[in-house]
Amino acid sequence: MKKKRFLKLHELYESNGCILYKGRVVVPQGQSELIKEICEGFHCNLDHIHPGQNETYHLIKKYFWWKRMNDEINDFVKHCENCQRGKYGNKSVGKMIPLGVPTGK
Ligand SMILES: [Zn+2]
Asked: What separation in Å is there between the alpha carbon of 105 and the centre of ligand 1?
């Protein structure tokens, strides 16, 4: 019988009550509130910069692991209100100020 494991068990270990996988905290299944908080922390709280789907995924995967994390992170970013607003109107880009003419000095 062929066994397919998503994580290699020998790479899992426990530290301070957290299960770690290759140094990343494993988020147990069904922790949707926690996952939402993690996504918000990495996507929404970076000095008002909202990184894209890939960037958010790469930031989070440095520290956390959970099953289907890529899908859930993409979904979170896709439905982020701030990103949606930025994309679909209500843009206030401010006043355009032309650069000065170079003096050649
Ligand atoms: Zn966003």
From this structure: 43
